[in-house]
Amino acid sequence: MRPAFPLHRERTAPNEGESLGTRRPDGTGAGYGVTFTSAETVHRRYKSQRKMIDLKTKVSDWCLYLALFGLVLAVIDAETVALSTKGKETVPQSPLSIILPFFLRITILMSTLLLDVLVLVYHSIEVKISLIEMGSNYWRIGVTCERIAKLLIELTICSICPLPGVGTVEWPLLGVGERLPHTVHIPVDVLLCLPMFLRLYIACRYLVLHSVHFQDPATKAMASLNQISVDFPFVVRTQLTERPLSIIAFSTVCFWLILAWMLTQCERYTHSDDIGSNRHIIDFIWFEIVTFFSIGYGDVQVETYCGRALAIITGIIGTLMSSLLIALVGRRMQLSLSERRVNQVIAESQLSIQYKHSAARVLQSTWRALKQKRLMNVEVGGAHRRAFLRFRAEQRNLLRAITGFRRARWKLRMRLEYEDDYIAFRRSFVETQDRLTTVRRTQERLRTQLNLLALSVDKLSLMLTPQF
Questions:
Q1: Do residues 157 and 228 lie in contact, with contact meaning Cβ atoms separated by under 8 Å?
Q2: What is its main location (predicted)?
Q3: In whole angstroms, what is the distance from residue 275 CA to residue 265 CA?
Q4: How far apart, in whole angstroms, are the C-alpha atoms of residue 6 and residue 293?
Q5: For the chain, what is the domain count?
Q6: 8 Å CB contact between 230 and 209
């Protein structure tokens, strides 16, 4: 049985009157793919790819602007709702307090729809770039299951926003007394503001597209040759290596502020007396800091499932960031190769001096012991006894000098064994190179002498030839 389409077709140029866009996807057209028949074709392909990448960067920038615009409006709307709420009843509203939230939510909804459209445009541009890289013009090749799943997830995240209208939901309270109410009413639009912070994933994409590794063609080509994907983890690891403290400090402060505001929205409606007070955001910033560092004084408590979930997330992220900070600081505390080499040379010099001094003290103690022994043999009476005592003292000094000499020799040997591997390798390489240089010089001298010997033999043979 023949397949419905050929498994392999030779890439051919389009026939006369047939463009790349008119080729049939079933494989029965004039060919499949783009043929690189000249430098002009390659240049056209590169120019199209560069144009699409620039367009993708601009679309990503506008996605970030719209996401931040909608997020800021949602925060303003949530604070406006909190200021106009007191207990289960609302404060008598003026026309401005009615029109302002409605106008904000309509604006947020319009920006959300425009953001969804730009997300679709962004992924369509990515499909076109992949088709250009593969040399194809059939769009189904670039649309994979992974790309579709990613698109659906992004559309779901970007579509969440507060809707016009008024509505509340009952929020269960935890750890309350029997006489207190176990539920509280929270506006639905306030709860819809919390997942809008997931839009900040677009900021990660913005960082990747505007990084040096992505913008510089030479760097990007080098990464491609080394099979390195220029994505967000790669850019973050690079930035953490270059300036770790700045990145960690900025990320931590942003995390504290965002989680503190989200905790405020989850917990402020449990206090019906002062819902619109600024005390809540200050208390929960303090709560975020002490929970982030796993301190937990217990002076600020959370009473909702939402607040406890955010507290758990804070503890987990705090543990990870603390471990990352310790690892990066430990790496920064390590000495460089030049510094290790300087310390190695200084330590070896000090141990060598100590070794020489110990050897000198052994010789001195030996000479003094022999001197006292001769005096002991010469002296008589009390002088003999004093010479004998001095001789024993010099023997003890000699034993201490020998022990110190052995200890210094052992330290020097251990220092040479535990020196840095790279320094030892470099030293061995230099020593081997010096030996090879000496061998080459010896070979050159030997070759010169052999040449002179050959010339002498030739002259001698010429002198002896006429005689025979």
A1: no
A2: membrane
A3: 10
A4: 62
A5: 2
A6: no
Residue that the structure tokens 């070896």 belong to:
348
Phi, psi of 199 (to 5 degrees): -65, -15
Q: List pLDDT tens digits, range 403-446.
A: 999 998 888 888 777 666 666 677 778 888 889 999 999 999 99
Is 39 within the bounds of a domain?
no
In a domain, 412, yes or no: yes
pTM for this one?
A: 0.67
Maximum pairwise Cα distance, the chain: 140
Compute the radius of gyration of the chain from its Cα atoms: 41
CB 263 within 8 A of CB 310: yes
- Domain membership of residue 75 (yes or no) is no
Distance from the Cα of residue 310 to its chain's centroid: 25
Distance CA 417, CA 425 (A): 12
Contacts of 193 (CB under 8 A, 6+ apart): 74, 75, 77, 78, 162, 265
The string of pLDDT tens digits covering residues 77-131 is 888 888 776 555 544 455 666 788 889 999 999 999 999 999 999 999 988 888 8
Q: Which domain covers residue 3, as residue numbers?
A: 1-31
Tell whether 385 is covered by a domain: yes
Class of residue 138 by CB neighbours under 10 A (exposed 0-12, middle 13-18, buried 19+): middle
Q: How far apart are CA 459 and CA 267, in angstroms?
A: 110
Domain harbouring 402, CATH code: 1.10.287
CB-based contacts of 271: which residues, under 8 Å, 6+ apart?
Answer: 277, 280
4 pLDDT band, cuts 50/70/90, is: very low
For helices 39-83 and 95-134, give the axis angle rounded to 10 degrees.
160
